[in-house]
Design a protein that fits this description.
Layout lengths: L1 E8 L4 H12 L3 E7 L6 H7 L4 E5 L5 H15 L4 E6 L8 H14 L2 E5 L8 H18 L11 E4 L3 H6 L6 H12 L4 E5 L15 H35 L5 H22 L11 H23 L4 H22 L6
Parallel strand pairs: 1-2, 1-4, 2-3, 5-7
Antiparallel strand pairs: 4-6, 5-6
Helix pairs in contact: 1-2, 5-8, 5-11, 7-8, 8-9, 8-10, 8-11, 9-10, 10-11
Amino acid sequence: MKTAVLLPVYNPDVKFLRLVEELHKRGFKVVAVNDGSLERCDEFFKRAAVYADVIGYKINKGKGFALKRGFEYIGNNLADEVDYIVTADSDGQHAIEDIERVAKLTRKTDGIVLGMRDLSEKIPIKSRIGNDMSKIVYTIVTGVYLRDNQSGLRGFPTRLCMWLQDIPGNKYEYELNVLATAHKEGMKITGIDIMTIYENNNKNTHFKPVRDTVRIQRSLWAYGLISALLYSLYTLVIALLVWFDIPHFFYWLIGIFVWSTAMHAVLNVFSAGIRHRQKISVIYYITCSIKYCLATLLMLLFYYQGWNMFLGGLCSLVLVFLLSYVFGRSGILGKV
């Protein structure tokens, strides 16, 4: 059985041909997906067809769509000869040696492998903006810290092809959705260090810093906003209970606490869609409980000190998001 290297390709140059030929020489089954490249690039794909299975379509639809089309092709046509898949960029950002290392580790672990760059090095500003924003938001929302969650060099068992096709997103956001869904379902992701390569200061990248960063973060922000609404509702109810001196306060408090935690559980379960269910861990409940407890104590402090309760609610929300980041950064819920 072989390992396939899946390359989403848009407006390639000679580096694409060199990569395909070298991968073929090293024994990989190469699948290249033409993501609606310009007609002037047709010659590159014709020459690449000597070493790779070339598929594609006429209209550019995005990296995520190209990857899913590739997974569909491999699952339907190559499942009998390919048992593992490595996805890589076709523009020279991934070294052949790193592709080989990811392939070996994927076969060894029989799970998802993520190639991670050293982002502390000097990298182009447009890439740093996207990576830094992505790390912070991903950690706050998912509770899992990833040093590099935008690397396109990854490994998957072929049996996950259907799973990978079902994950939402057609552009750059797809790759982040894959990681978030895997974490939600309790799948293990193994990280491996890879070289950080930005040729010509990354001037040829198709990544648009503002537009694509917003698109990548959109699904995470949607989850985060719903979570923030739950926390806001919780603090509002606590404020009303304290302010109006409702009888049996602590019974109410316990009931609201249980309800809010349950709503967070439901949110996590259904946020990834019908076919992706999260295996919520005990640690998740513990960290969620800690955040609610500290938010409640802060609200009570504001009340008994005679301070402004509205300000107390805002401070509680800030505390919750800081704790979310701290828990995620510490690796309590997972770290790669």
